[in-house]
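Exercise 7. Given the components listed, write out the predicted structure of the assembled complex. Treat all entries as one system.
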Amino acid sequence: MKSLMDKCCDKCQSTVENQCQGYIKCRLEGPFCHQDEGCKEKRAAFLAGINIPAGSDKKKILICAGTGCISSGSLKVSDKLVEELEKAGLTGQVKVTTTGCHGFCEQGPIFIVEPQHVFYTRVQPEDVAEIVESHLKNGQVVERLLFHEPSTGQTVLEYNNVNFYARQQREVLHNCGHIDADSIDEYVANGGYLGLTKVLSGMSPTDVVEEVKKSGLRGRGGGGFPSGLKWQFTQQAAGDKKYVVCNADEGDPGAFMDRSVLEGDPHSVIEGMLICGYAIGADEGYVYVRAEYPLAIKRLTTAIEKAEQYGLLGKNILGSGFSFKLKIKAGAGAFVCGEETALLNSIEGLRGMPRPRPPFPAVKGLWEKPTNINNVETFANVPLIFRKGADWYAGIGTEKSKGTKVFALTGKVNNTGLAEVPMGITMREIIFEIGGGIQGGKKFKAVQIGGPSGGCLPENLLDLPIDYDSLTQAGAMMGSGGLVIMDETTCMVDLARFFLNFTQKESCGKCIPCREGTKRMLEILERICDGQGRQGDIETLERLGNTIKSASLCGLGQTAPNPVLATLRYFRSEYEDHINEKKCIAGVCSALLTYFIDEELCKGCSKCAKVCPAGAITGVVKEPYKIDTDKCIKCGACIDSCKFGAVKRG
Amino acid sequence: MAICQCGNPVEDPKQQQLDAVFAKYSGQKGALIPVLQEAQNIYGYLPTEVLEQISKNLKIPFSKVYGVVTFYAQFHLKPRGRNIIRVCLGTACHVRGGAKIFDRIRTELTIDDGETTPDLRYTLESVACIGACGLAPVIMINDDTHGRLTPDQIADILAKYE
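Answer.
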């Protein structure tokens, strides 16, 4: 046995072509078909090597190798660790595993010592020798590398006691950061493919659809459409050939949960797609991954190869007669391809432009065949529903939004990263407890939710329980779950301009309301930020926004005005200040700012005059300097250079 | 097979690779985008002659091939720099000052978004999000991610890429 997936001895009759129905369970508790204590022990020893039991003298190091931690240098840390362990003669005692994303990218590279859950953060290669010598050899934890809770300043020993993790309910992400994503053994050892086993050992396709309906799962990609219903439509559609498509074209700026699932737990997506394929009667599937995620493509490719090797993809899976093959399609850089019908066009090799609906993909999808499309996070939820039961799943969340949701927490918040929480939690809990509050002790202003399709929520809505419906009512949208936190230094007009600039560039140009409407809205917003706002601009923005929403062909256009309409709803006074008073209270829109030097505070050091690229600052050394506002280009270099806080902006 | 100036046919390794791509995707549905991606990997960009060959081999009108190439941001019709700089201007980077980083690179290299320096050393691109929001503001040069940046670090980082 080289792998947990291999047979224990020659008595095992399961082959890839003729697979035993209990193949997966047998890997965990087997063998079942023959009595042999030796075989049982071999399996148990293998499992103990993967999930090291508490109290064992062996240790396992988890080093995060998600995109965030890799760019912070985690692979160098891992190489150094292997080298140092060898030097210390600990290679047999300590297993090094590089995992997918832990979700706490801000603190990367993340370094965990199991089974004690000791949590080191921002570990650099030069720290490794100390960890090996002090902790792994002599049992002394390296205090200085432990995480410091920003709210209390205290160090925390174990990751499960860090506020960022303690307040989460990690179900979809339970494997992310804890298993080697390239190892099918580790996935199976942690309950992987048990959901599929349950489905293929006696459930009818209709039972499967009913179970998903009962769980209350709704699409995690943005719309929140009930997944069971979607599956049912495709199941009932007439057709000799059907497809399952996974939308991994995660294009919303500020959202990276799908990337983390693919990088950290790719088999969960494969298992979800297999269950869907069985339920709707499809034998072929595609995963459409955006080209900007090379690591996700690599890990998923490995996972597909492993699943094929052990017969979990291919013909006659688990001896059930069900066959399924899976292919990856890499995107080519177009945000609109996240829209399901545009995505189908892109797979077919066409320009990624949306198709009119109806007919919906459930009836006429990929190559005109019935097709079920869900996103990565939705598929990753499916194995859990079957492993733990629809009732368990439906017990989490609110009345109409079940289960958990992964949010990507970014912006001006202390703890950036991925947070998985039950539906119905409040924004305040996410930002202030999991996120650890606002950076630099500044004041919270708003949270942008759902990316360029979503809206923002101001402070007085922080206690709103979050689910699909409450957010839509508040003028925002769950979207993919990106949360960008903003403080008092963010200008809401500038933010709306930023999002519209994005959607305007990404508009595919097929329908006029989106193509022309977003362009006109952007022009108005740019004018307002430039200090050229006019009376009536706000009303025009609202009128245009509502027209674009109701008249556009696809989701991109129908939601593009949301950031503008939502900021107008909650921060209208900022727009009015920009237009009427020519003022930007956040100090962002440079055309509306003037710079001056406070004579009381200026020591006459001449530093600002030296950095000024426009030569607008003059004066005599040791006397207060002056800024010539006609020459000033408002770059802000003087503010950054002044040690005395004498340069002011207003 | 390419023809040398002296009139003798010569082996063109890039052409051989391209022919292998055609063979690999022969008869497959929806092959245009993967073929374009692999062709661009071979040549670094998509020269007209290559697009003509793709059109002929896949039996797709040249106009349609051109339409697809110009639709997707990933495809390039002009040669690109040896080092591709991608500046993230996504939401998280935006609120943490990504635009200042972008401005500094533009001044350092005196090229604008989407342009290449005349010596083909750098190509500058803005992107919407590279998904490393925890490290904002971020840039990517080739496959290296540089995060938590300030404008003053830019010159040193650029100098490392020949």
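Discussion: Chain A touches chain B through 54 residues (CB under 8 Å). The two ends of chain A are 71 Å apart (CA to CA).
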